[in-house]
Amino acid sequence: MSSDLYRVVNLGIKQTVNQIIDGALDSNADAIGMSGLLVKSTVIMKENLQELTARGLDQKWPIVLGGAALTRAYVEQDLASMFPGEVRYARDAFEGLRLMDAIMAVKRGDEGAALPALRERRVANTRVKTEDAPIDTRRSDVALDNSIPNPPFFGSRVIKGIQLSDYAGMLDERALFVGQWGLKGNRGEYETMVEEEGRPRLRALINEVQSKGWLNAAVVYGYFPCYSEGNDLVIVHHEGEHKGKERTRFTFPRQTRDRRLCISDFFASKESGKTDVVAFHVVTMGSTVSEAAAQLFADNNYREYLELHGLSVQLTEALAEHWHARMREELQVKSEDSTDLQGILDQGYRGSRYSFGYPACPDLEQQVQLCELLDPSRIGVELSEEFQLHPEQSTSAIIVHHPEAKYFNAN
Ligand code: B12
Fold first, then answer.
1. What is the pTM of this model?
2. pLDDT tens by residue, 270-293
3. How far apart are CA 162 and CA 270, in angstroms?
4. DSSP per residue, 88-139
């Protein structure tokens, strides 16, 4: 299959719809592509399409959308039904290219040329609207007789200057090489690429970022007394005049099917009279590496940008994994850990580390309570109005010790 050559004018991240329209007009674009990584971007995509329509520009450019936050159904059913122009979803860059070929064929007026059909709505949405249904707060069958570990302290602590050698062992090479750097091939080819390109480049890049002092790994973490109440997890004060009284609460969604799991079920209930313990952390690689990556991007050094950005985000994950392991050690449950890295990456340990925005706790807004408890500004991390952490190379989590706690989808 052959493709035309396309010039991509990269406008950069967090552009307003007006900047996108101006960019498309300035460069006389044939199509507009937008990428959405976080839930919030699904709303922004919709608003952008509405704005294009309001300005009478909906027929001017076909729109191609992609990114982890979007799904084919959302783009080709929900968005397509409100956008008079053409909008399509691209699962990856290759589908983006195929779409561009079709878009250009239509534009040239090639005989029989057409954009791929929109995905059809397969089943009518028969699920009862949850807003009208009473919220199910009945506990699931999660065991209640688990032991509750003793944390080494209550409250939060800040750890700075963590050495790369401490957490580099948790780096998920596959996620880096395949997911970020785009090394792909069949099994044998992939191994050769990893040996000949991936690992040598990784070693060189790690030496470079270390010698330049770009990595400033830091963590803020803590343990808090708590109990569950229905779908809520209630955090209580551990000291002072309000000791034992409610400090803040998180509300988690409950599955409507399967085991009807809800994160709060993993904690001792109010009625049990027991006090349980929950942990949280925020980890960051610091802002220097973010700025270095942004500079490469601004200088049009895309390959270097892709490599540095990819490494820095995977190191963020590695740091989160490493600190979670430290916390299991502190809670004295680490003896249950899997002995190899893949086992650890597949949650081969007691409990789980959930991040707000992930399927078991999709509500990003609850990062607010988490940040109140930990005050990550002490490691230079701020929560934006859109509940994103800055610098980008940061991640937060709620750490649950219950042996039955594993990833699940709350929908
Ligand atoms: C790496 C990663 C991170 C990294 C870096 C994130 C980053 N800014 O790059 C770190 C560890 C920092 C991170 C943190 C968080 N993350 Co994260 N993360 C991921 C992960 C595992 C991979 C994303 C990635 O880099 N993929 C590689 C790139 C190259 O792929 P891509 O972006 O999908 O793009 C490809 C295609 O989608 C397509 N494409 C994309 N856009 C476009 C556009 C066009 C026009 C076309 C043609 C194609 C196209 O082409 C690309 C190449 O194939 C995803 C899960 C996943 N598997 O996608 C979650 C994910 C993005 N993260 C998620 C969440 C919730 C978070 C946190 C909020 C968690 C938390 N509470 O801390 C934080 C937020 C951080 C912040 N600063 O606010 C959620 C987002 C959920 C949502 N729908 O909003 C995801 C989807 C995980 C999940 N399954 O729930 N994360």
1. 0.88
2. 999 999 999 999 999 999 999 999
3. 38
4. EE-SSHHHHHHHHHHHHHHHHT-TT--PPPPPPP-S---SPPTTTSPP----
Torsions phi, psi for 17 (to 5 deg): -65, -35
Counting residues of the chain whose pLDDT is more than 70, the rounded percentage is 96
Q: For 96-110, what is the mean pLDDT?
A: 94
Pocket lined around ligand 1, Cβ cut-off 6 Å: 33, 35, 37-39, 64, 66-69, 90, 92-93, 96, 179-180, 313, 316-317, 355-359, 388-389, 392-396
Looking at the domain covering 17-108, what would its CATH class be? alpha beta
pLDDT tens for 125-146 read: 444 444 567 889 999 999 999 9
Per-residue pLDDT, 1: 47
Tokens of 227: 């109990």
* Architecture of the domain made up of 155-400: Roll (3.10)
Ligand 1 atom nearest to 359, measured from its CA? 90
